[in-house]
Amino acid sequence: MYGLFNSSEIDEEYYNATHTSAPSPILALIFTVICGIGVIGNASLLVYIIVQKLYHNFISSHFIAHLCFTNLIALLVLVPVIIHNVFTGVNLLQASNWLCRVQVSLTVTVWTVMAMMNLCIAGVHLLTFARIHYEQLFGLSPTKLCVLSWIISWLLSLPSLTNGHVAIYGPAVRTCVFSHSDSGLKFLTYTLIFGVFIPALFSSFAYFRILQILFHSPIVFQSLGLYKSRFLVYFFLLGPLYALPFYILTALDPTDPLRISQNTLWTIACTMIAFVPCIVAPLLYGASIFIIKEEDMALTARTHKAPPGAYHHVAQQHNMQAQLI
Q: What is this structure's pTM?
């Protein structure tokens, strides 16, 4: 019987699979230190946004705070299991196929939420430079979008919980990954299309459009102090590429030497690099709060809190800037 409970055949296949690899204590220690820095960075930015109440004035801070929260889940829940596997060389979840599938489900959910938050932030940044009000494009409040992103991401990851053939432990990458069965490859395809390619496509379009706007009127944006934000845009465009080596590695045939390798260190590096966005996000998006802060103020949704004509005055000033460009 397939579903939320494993059949004995699936359990037996999972238990007979390879769950041991060559231990790498030094890599595990390095990864622990780097992830510790990421936890401090995400927690600090999240606390700063909440304490300073930036979400009252800046739309992007809603999504940045939620991204920090999602990053903390990845760094505090998913990464420690991988670090254990790298340090000891033994799969921590080898006794439970169900927990292995939960790990895959949570990984897909968290990574998809991160991609959607990056897309929402990219959309707000585009609105900032294109002089468009937030509600004209999104139509939903930031809180509803954040909740919706978790619902969509969880639904996308659901096959890993309902189908025992989807997930298997990968000794090369030291974590549970997509199996090479028909169900596993279909799940990988859906994940790549809806959790990676589509959000990356739209966020990349947004940032390329921002670069086009910046390069069209560099003098104006220099006078506004926004021209330097192009460097942040370059880094934002690299975001979807970090997990690419990991996905390529998991898509290989299970008999491929790279996928079954237990001693190749670069395969562990592919797993670590996939979590790099969780570590660099607070630095990049924290910088974006300060660099694009004044312009983002014109996109605030505080109209329901302000007097009837308050936002109209801000919009008037914003339209005057748009005419200059």
A: 0.83
